[in-house]
Amino acid sequence: MSTHLNSRTAWLGAFSAALLILTGCASNTRVEPPAPVENRLAGAGTPATVAPNANADAATAQAPQSTVTPVDVTGNDAMANGGGRVVYFDFDSFVVKDEFRGVVESHARRLSADRKRRVLIEGHTDERGGREYNLALGQRRAEAVLKSLTLLGVQDGQVEAVSFGKEKPAAAGSNEAAWAKNRRAELKDR
Question: Alpha-carbon distance 98 to 104, whole Å?
């Protein structure tokens, strides 16, 4: 028991020393001011240089107005356009991939904001495999999305998972491109 206490004490001492060193280093760290920024929009001739912390009104008067349209990063734009309602899966898998985390999170936010809203999650597979196997795999895919939503705060009564297996393909064909589009879970409002 004394060996355990000695190792714990030694670890705490080492951690405290490291923390003191890092804290001491942080207070002595010198922050350099930002470098001047070149304004290429000032004119066709020589570019003007804008110093940091310059008068904001003067800098604004020189630069023309931006013609860039803002981007909606909340995911609501994708929802309005009908996109962002499909989660695709790898072959013979029901793991929700990281690339579809945004789709699930945007639906979770939408459902959490309106507790009266309901969503049906339809699980689908490609044509390979037997009917019973594909119905079970489609159900696991739908339930994986459902579980992700409930972990993000959606109530159980707001979501329902069903499987169509290989009965409702999104793309016709017997190739990888068609199969990849058919291995999916679709989120549909009820």
Answer: 10
pLDDT above 90 covers a percentage of the chain that reads: 55
pLDDT, tens digit, 9 for 90 and up, residues 87-100: 999 999 999 999 99
Question: Which domains are present in the chain?
Answer: 76-189 (3.30.1330.60)
Strands 159-165 and 119-124: parallel
| Spatial separation of the C-alpha atoms in residues 144 and 153, rounded to whole Å | 15
Longest dimension (CA), the chain: 78
Burial of 42 (0-12, 13-18, 19+ CB in 10 A): middle
pTM for the complete prediction? 0.58
Neighbours of 138 (CB within 10 A): 27
Q: How far apart are CA 26 and CA 170, in angstroms?
A: 57
Residue that is written with structure tokens 């490291």 in the block = 18
Q: What is the DSSP letter of 100?
A: G
